[in-house]
Each structure stands twice: as structure tokens, then as C-alpha cells.
Amino acid sequence: MSAFGTPRPRRADASWRARLAVVLLLLTLSAAFLTDLGQSRADAVRCERFTSQSEARRAVVAPALGKRVVVIGDSWSAGLGLDDAGDAWTSRLSGQVHVDAFSGSGFSRSASPCDGSWFGARAARAVAGGADLVVVAGGLNDVDQPVGAVRAGFARVMRAVGKLPVVVVGPASAPSRAGGAPEVDTLLADLAEAHGAAYVSTLGLDLPYLEDGLHLSPEGHRAFGDFVATRLEVLGG
């Protein structure tokens, strides 16, 4: 008791509160660590699956004769969500079509957590066998990426393909990412012009999608592919 009869604060209570605060902090950090670890494992599994699908996709070449067309793209070109990846929109193009696609990838390096998946990292490999035309299709995975990253990635692609003729196919207005698609479309159109590549905008297309609002249905792939094929004919590609 103090001289005035007031109980003194108990040091044990203060110590208990301090220990409790430390325990709560450790629990919070542990939860964050486990969340990050779980996300890392999920990313690793997804990247492994996408890598396998990408390799299988590259092995499929349209049996048609004619010019060699190389497509560098994302999940749309990979045919993600289709029963047969060979039915992706690229199947509507004429010529010997070679597809180098990786789901989740884009122009920017950080669009996907999978190492070496971005367009710039795959472009040189994609055109190693030569090409009469290079079609680079994507952009939906770049809607949340810094403009500078998209610019740098685009330049990397163009350096890799060298003097080969290039047509860039921009993003359509997929419902789940429609808000960011117009900005990416404008950016890619400007970059294509600056680098001497042709550009095909697909923003105005009314396409059917799967339930995720991001990937095309089989009908959507046919409509998208027919549109791009027609535009390539107009461009002389």
C-alpha cells in the first residue's frame, strides 16, 4: 500500500501484458509466414503445371502448308480451359502455326510468378526456327503492372525478334479485367507504332467467356481467331 492507501501497480500484471503482446506478435508473424509459404507452394505447383502445358503446346504444329507463323502468347494462346488446347484461337490462323504460350504471362516480367515465362524471355526461343510472321498476343495479364515494366518487356520482345515482321494483338475486354484493358490497349498500340510493328485492337469484340470471366469459351476462341485471321489478311500477314 502507498502512504495514501492506494494499491501500487503490480509488476506481475505489466510483465504478463508484455508477454502476451510478444505472443500475439509471434502468432501474427507465424500466420503471415505460413500464408506466404502456402502461396509460394501454390505458385510452384501452378507454374509446374503451366510449364508442362506450355511445352506440350509448343510441340503441336498446324499441319497446313504455307508461311511459318510464330505466336507468342498467354493462356488464351495456350487454350487454357478447353478440352483440347489445339482448338485455341490460333487454330484459325493459316499457315504453319507454331505456338509458344504460357498461362498467366505478359509483356511485363512480373505479370507471372513463374520464372522465364514473360514474353521477352521466350521470344528468342520462339523464333529460333525462323518465321515469316510473328504474332504477339496478350495484355490482360499486364493490366495491374507498371507502365514502365510493360514498356521494357515490349522492347525486349522486339529486340529478340529482330527484323522479323511483327503483329501485336492487344487484349479484349474480358469481364474480369475490362477496367484495365483499355489502358493496356492504348499503351500497346503506341509501343507497336514506335517499334514499327502492326497492331490489332480487339477491345470492341463481343466474345463469349467461361464462367471465370477471363478465358474464352470454345465459341469465343473461334470468333477471336477468325477476327485476328481476317485482320492479318488485311495487313498482308
UniProtKB/TrEMBL annotation:
InterPro entries: SGNH_hydro, SGNH_hydro_sf. Coiled coil: none annotated. This is SGNH/GDSL hydrolase family protein. It comes from the Bacteria. Keywords: Hydrolase. The lineage of its organism: Bacteria, Bacillati, Actinomycetota, Actinomycetes, Propionibacteriales. Residues 71-223 form the SGNH hydrolase-type esterase domain. GO terms for molecular function: hydrolase activity.
